[in-house]
């Protein structure tokens, strides 16, 4: 039922260019479009918005026109549904290649559901998904229109708008960016503000109020009819989607400049690659490093019950940042030319820490892990038949210095430090047992590594039983059999339990030297732990026996000061390595000062103080602005009502509405009855002058409403202010404060004043 | 055939029918002043009955008829006579008894032997203010003769129609105590009265004063006319000009409608009741010095104008809810129009 606007009165309607209903219709359109933005989190690209915006605009215009023609709310709903169906059919027809009109339409939705179930989000949207999103937003637009205009509860429109926001928030689970919340509330605010502007226009409901009263029971029923399906839809949608998407949706996703990318889990490929029936050459490279290099692809910083995952990836454009945390260690710049053949991946194999790249295609990097990732077309095959050169910092810690190093706080500490709460306690005990005797973190790490490299463990690429913690426990305590993933993962967990930030890196072993080149085969696919130390950054360890040799700095008794290139390798491999690896070079680098870029300059204290002060001021100002929103809305409404422009009817009713809201603000009730009666009842509570003002105003209103003609030469604004002053005069401080800053009339207006 | 009859008591030929084009125009202030004078005169006769007097004057200005319902001796007839005298109009009193005939009211044609013609002898209804005492004592036939005259403002006898003088107001009284041998007015008849009031006993002070003043002589004798029938007719025209805004009309209809929906009422108000309420509200507003009706006027008059027309349901009667209370409740249930 439309608000009985002034035009509905039997009195000759004043020509009104923009009615309250128009404003509400437009506001709903804007609000819903804003609220549609968070769905972007689920897909790549904005394609769905290009359909959603026209559809929502169409529905909003339909509501505007139908309500203008006063065809009633039911007709509005019917017209909107017909329009939406027509629109979607038309779109479906242009998107779909096969099937009849309706089967083709339905086919697109089926396609969408298959797509959603098979893809991790954010997914590449296909036609079906775009249509599905557009349909969803159309339904939201209609629901919002029903809430705001049909049942006249603008505040309830939060429900459909929040419904949109809830879906990406609960399906993605990781941090939903702040802007999605802002978009949702922005949309809500637009609708509320439009209503706020309208309030002056709608409160005089005229004698038709009786009809409204009669339908109060029906109103409750209608509200329930709207609210219940909306809630059910929200809940089913929120619950069903993550279930449908399975684990894929709960994984953290990297976010590029253009939005999120799908990232395959490199660890999944490990066993598959290691168990290739035929060993084949995949990479050939030549490097300045004498013994070849580990070709690192990415690292997995996050650990939970299901294993190691990539997390918090931020893709940036080149050039690369210096490696995190490296401040006090020798380094050498080495150049490597790499040629990848039969190996397709989105991760670029490169020696750690890459600094300069000459590579074709679109690549971005993550500053924490220094992984380089393809962002162009056909990403997952980006490295196939690729030739490139890398200039990297070959960070070679000296054993002596490292053994004194403290653990540090890496930039990705939020992923590399936490220990899952449900981790089996045996692991912690084992870590304690191995490391409690060692005085420094590096020595603890070395102890863990030598334990894993001991005879107790056997290298095997056979599938091991169990998953998650079970597999870990099985490996560490029962079978003691596994391959690099188990070794690397176990060492990273045990080190993390000993207080050292850890992550698992994935890539290739250095491979076999053939002439000037190194040849890397598919079975050189490898995982190893990286531990973080203050001043040294991420340091590679090698707990897997038989495939790799422990780096010199990880073995007790070796150090650069010995100048001994041939470190004693503690646990010589027994089973024969699948790939003969050269012994790592001990660090014999000159003590050159670190180049500028490696050591990011600390900002001076005063800058930090300024930033802090700026932040505090900003936050306080933001809060103040937020707190004063009710005041500002109320004030705007008052100015609008007491404006000296507009026709007399509007001005008199405006002043009367202002006085009514002042009475409500003062915490009192607005009596029912004729203006004269109300004037008398309110006047009884006021001092003489205010009571007189109230009486004058009530008579003016009475004449304006009921007399044949009225001539007002009183200053309505002054009268209204007089009454307000009188109302608040004797009140205590808290009431006065509330009346100004938390005006009761605003809330009563928003949440349906029916008295 | 329409013949005008000028009764012997006709004091003012000007006030025959309508104010006429020559009648002076009165505005609201004139009306208020005149009514104040009339009221002052009447109040010198009937003390402490401000509201009853006002209602009676309102009915006069709204061209309605008044039903006074109360025990004997509270001044019903006195009120009617005082009004007639104050406005310098003819007053006739008809004591309704079971043997009263319709012709006693309307008049009768008698064959005049001398002129050899039928001559019309006017009945008791030929006066500006007619007091019908204990109207429920007469037979229904006789009652209806009066009621027809009230509605039509004319009398038909033997095929000849005689118009009545204006202003014309019937003040009928009913005694609610003695019900034996009476013929209570049926609903259809009660509907023709614009308003019903109960005089009620005077306050002690008023009664004391009454004893003091009325003991020696008839106060009516002292009452001087303060206006005349012509003026009253002009004032009636003024009242007709009072403005009723659409929301107020809708409010009035809302109240009428609500009486029909009320579960406490077996019979709601008729369309005629709506018309009477509107006219009464206009007169009342004019008496307050306003040229427009406000919702309070309507609400204020709802009980006197509507209560005697409606029939409370059996439940309401068992709970001793009077029609007046029910109407008051109905009025409260209808929201006051805002705009």
List strands and helices in order, with pairings.
The complex is a heterodimer of chains A (755) and B (339).
Chain A: H1 20-36, H2 47-68, H3 73-95, H4 101-118, H5 127-150, H6 158-172, H7 178-202, H8 209-214, H9 216-245, E1 255-256, E2 259-260, H10 266-274, E3 281-287, E4 295-300, E5 302-304, E6 307-309, E7 331-340, E8 354-358, E9 363-365, E10 372-374, E11 387-395, H11 399-404, H12 413-416, H13 425-435, H14 441-452, E12 458-459, H15 468-478, E13 481-482, H16 484-497, E14 502-508, E15 512-514, E16 517-521, E17 525-533, E18 537-540, H17 605-627, H18 629-641, H19 648-665, H20 675-683, H21 688-706, H22 716-729, H23 733-741, H24 744-750
Parallel strand pairs in A: 12-13
Antiparallel strand pairs in A: 1-2, 3-7, 3-16, 4-14, 5-6, 7-11, 8-11, 9-10, 14-17, 15-16, 17-18
Chain B: E1 2-4, H1 28-45, H2 50-61, E2 66-69, H3 76-86, E3 91-95, H4 102-106, E4 107-112, E5 117-122, E6 129-133, H5 140-152, E7 154-157, E8 160-163, E9 169-174, H6 187-190, E10 195-197, H7 204-214, H8 219-222, H9 229-240, H10 246-261, E11 265-267, H11 271-287, H12 295-306, E12 311-312, H13 314-318, H14 323-333
Parallel strand pairs in B: 1-8, 2-9, 2-10, 3-6, 6-9
Antiparallel strand pairs in B: 4-5, 7-8, 11-12
Helix pairs in contact in B: 1-2, 1-3, 2-11, 9-11, 10-11, 10-12, 11-12, 12-14
Largest sheet of chain B, in brief, is:
5 strands, parallel
What is the molecular shape of chain A? Answer: elongated
One letter per element, helices H and strands E, the order of chain B comes to: EHHEHEHEEEHEEEHEHHHHEHHEHH
Give the domain tally of chain B: 2
Give me the secondary-structure category of chain A.
Answer: alpha+beta
What value does the Rg of chain B take, in angstroms? 20 Å
Average the pLDDT over all residues of chain A and give the rounded result: 74
Structural class of chain B: alpha/beta
Low-confidence stretches of chain B: 1-22
Most extensive interface between two protein chains, with residue counts: A-B, 26 and 23 residues
Low-confidence stretches of chain A: 1-15, 200-217, 234-261, 558-601
Structural domain count of chain A: 3
Tally the helices of chain A.
24
Gyration radius over CA of chain A: 35 Å
Find the count of extended strands of chain A (DSSP E, 2+ residues): 18
Q: Main sheet of chain A, how many strands, which sense, barrel? A: 6 strands, antiparallel
Helix content of chain A: 40-55%
> What's the pLDDT, averaged over the residues of chain B?
79
| Termini gap of chain A | 18 Å
Strand order of the largest sheet of chain A: 8-11-7-3-16-15
CATH homology-level superfamily of the largest domain in chain B: P-loop containing nucleotide triphosphate hydrolases
